[in-house]
Amino acid sequence: MTFTFFSSVNEINLIIKNIYYKLIDIIKSHLNIKISVLPDFFIDRVVKFSNVDQLTEAIGTKIKVGGGSIRGFNSFDIKGGNAVNVAYCLANLGIKVDLFTVADKIGSSILNTVFEKFKSQVNLHIKNGKHGLTTIFEFSDLSFSVTNVMLSDVGDNRNFGPEYVESTDVDILQILNSSSAVVLTNWASNLRGTDLLKYVFTNSLNSMHFLDPADISERRSEFIQDLKDCSKLIDFLSINENEYRQIIYALSNTNDTDILNNNEGCSITPVSLCKSSLSLSKFFEIEICIHTSIGSVLSNGYNSVFVKSIPPSKIEIVSGAGDSWDAAFLFGHLLNFTNEEKLCFANLVAFLYLENIYTGAPSLQNVIDYIQNYYLI
């Protein structure tokens, strides 16, 4: 059992420089990696507030006078859904993608417009139905920390089972079997998520299987049981700080409390993350990625690697940052980066996304240019 930490500026800079030279070689070559991603698509409306009091006071004032419009707040619409965001970020990095999702005519038009620039690089397999709609409240304070709270109508993402992909006008088994990886997102919003997981992972035995469950707080006990039952089908579990805490909390209410021994509860430090990720990975027999504001950790149940995050000087957008992290990690893994390089590359792409330097998910060339401008001078 070993823990490895990369936390100093010099260590991070050296890893990024090594990544740069790998990216230069990659961009010169023809990437022949294809990933299948499913299933959720949302249209997100982001509304920004300085703090929660600003929102509650404005609502309270309007209620007292019988209702009315609250004006003067910044809002904007973006494509959303973990699957759509991951697919978009992967495509921006040069990966071929098959995206399976659900949308009505308006949603389908939006998806086709969003992915139009990738041409034949992205294949959209859209089942007719009701896509999700989310209103995202973003709260920021003077320390530049940002928290988002989402009100979601999940639509037909709620019951996206195997029949949604079986009934598409394509040979789904051929697509799954030819994929370098199959990515399943937002299990938490999908009551048929376990059925879908078993179907797509069982029918893609030559692919890497990657699961990002999203916010499991309402189904955490069910989720840990499914992880136990399906562990042989899952290669990587990717969770954020909240999901990590929810798993620990769920385990504390079961007979599996031995896993919590030698851990520091839900504290978020490099050491506690390494200990917890190793325990969780060993317990579930799945490789665990945990990405937090202080850094990211990867464990295979025997060893854990921690890489400190790159703190943004400003945060322009939060929604979708975890999806950009997932896409970059997948990219690094499939292109044989070292473990510290996978984590550092994912941290860097998430950092660029948070600062919104390139107006959304960065392209591979954007990442190369950024490293050249800020790390090779």
Can you walk me through this structure?
Helices cover 41% and strands 23% of the residues. It is of the alpha/beta class. The chain has a single domain (2-43, 82-131, 157-374), classed as Ribokinase (UDP-N-acetylmuramoyl-L-alanine:D-glutamate ligase, 3-Layer(aba) Sandwich), CATH 3.40.1190. The strands form 2 sheets. The chain has a 10-stranded mixed beta sheet with strand order 1-14-13-12-11-10-9-2-5-6, with helices on both faces. Strands 4-3-7-8 form a 4-stranded mixed beta sheet. Helix 4 (105-114) links the parallel strand 5 and strand 6 (122-128). The two termini are 38 Å apart.
In short:
This protein is α/β, with parallel strands linked by helices and 377 residues long. The protein is 41% helix and 23% strand.
Protein topology:
Blueprint: E1 2-6, H1 9-28, E2 34-38, E3 42-49, H2 52-64, E4 75-80, H3 82-92, E5 96-103, H4 105-114, E6 122-128, E7 132-140, E8 146-153, H5 162-166, H6 172-177, E9 181-185, H7 193-202, E10 208-212, H8 220-230, E11 236-240, H9 241-252, H10 270-284, E12 287-291, E13 295-299, E14 303-308, H11 321-334, H12 339-355, H13 364-374
Parallel strand pairs: 1-14, 2-5, 2-9, 3-7, 5-6, 9-10, 10-11, 11-12
Antiparallel strand pairs: 3-4, 7-8, 12-13, 13-14
Helix pairs in contact: 1-12, 1-13, 3-11, 8-9, 11-12
